[in-house]
């Protein structure tokens, strides 16, 4: 994991560049494998977040900020980026994009029936927003990542049981999953990307995986992130998520029939990302076997 250490002086400079009050306190925030986050407290008692994008290019960050701004304008609860005095949303420093966001009070989502019902409603609202013209088509943790893993395995001659299984599963799922309704998907609605107040979702964060893809896939990906406990799927969590979702958008029969295959694809996507990150990209950490948490789920009985 790359991380950018920020001095008080550096943080003060970027606050001044946005024409904001003076910096009082700088605090490192936890979370995030692809960026560095700091909470900045200012003299006017306001708080903002400094986000440094360690794994995205300037162009990629510009794209993501354009999408989140569009979603804010369409009443999706995600913080709008703060402009600098020159009108830009990005300050480039040492080749990295530095951005500012409002700090939103709230707690990370704890998966219970009330919070998941609220999450389902908000996810359905996102799915009903008309996709912007520049929204990318490909989910970065899906088939393109699978092919990347296969290519690396060929180059390094390091095919594993997991990669053989992933290739076999990919062929089957490609045949089983038909064309389904598509729209804007978040792609990574796990608890640490969701802030709640009194079990009501008030903020959705980290749209790095946002793209134009299968809506029901996004829903079951949320269940992958929020619907399991101690390695087992929790029926009540699925029901709450689905009830909240369908209070806004009703799944059609073909979507319902595809849920098991879509959930399998979502589970494999998370396993593949963890394999890429902790086996190939950042080997020999405590997370090396973290992908196995996902593969262990593949033969569990699901609530759909």
Report on this structure.
The protein is an alpha+beta fold. The chain folds into 2 domains: 8-103, Phosphorylase Kinase, domain 1 (2-Layer Sandwich), CATH 3.30.200.20; 108-295, Alpha-Beta Complex (Aminoglycoside 3'-phosphotransferase, Chain: A, domain 2). The protein has 9 helices and 12 strands. The strands form 4 sheets. The protein has a 5-stranded antiparallel beta sheet with strand order 1-2-3-5-4, covered by helices on one side. A 3-stranded antiparallel beta sheet has the order 6-8-9, with helices on one face. A two-stranded antiparallel sheet has the order 7-10. A hairpin with a 2-residue loop joins strand 4 (91-93) and strand 5. Helix 3 packs parallel to helix 7 (235-246), helix 4 packs antiparallel against helix 5 (161-176) and helix 5 (161-176) runs antiparallel to helix 8. It is globular and about 55 Å long.
Give the CA-based shape. Answer: globular
| Intertermini distance | 36 Å
CATH architecture of the largest domain: Alpha-Beta Complex
- Listing every helix as H and every strand as E from the N terminus to the C terminus, the arrangement reads HEEEHEEEHHHEEEEHEEHHH
In the predicted model, the low-confidence regions spanning at least 5 consecutive residues are none
What gyration radius follows from the Cα positions, in whole Å?
Answer: 20 Å
Q: Return the CATH class of the largest domain.
A: Alpha Beta
Would you give the CATH topology of the largest domain? Aminoglycoside 3'-phosphotransferase, Chain: A, domain 2
User: Beta fraction of the residues?
Assistant: 15-25%
Helicity, as a percent range: 40-55%
CATH superfamily of the largest domain: Aminoglycoside phosphotransferase (APH), C-terminal lobe
Mean pLDDT: 95
Query: How many domains comprise the coordinates?
Result: 2
Look at the helices and sheets and give the structural class: alpha+beta
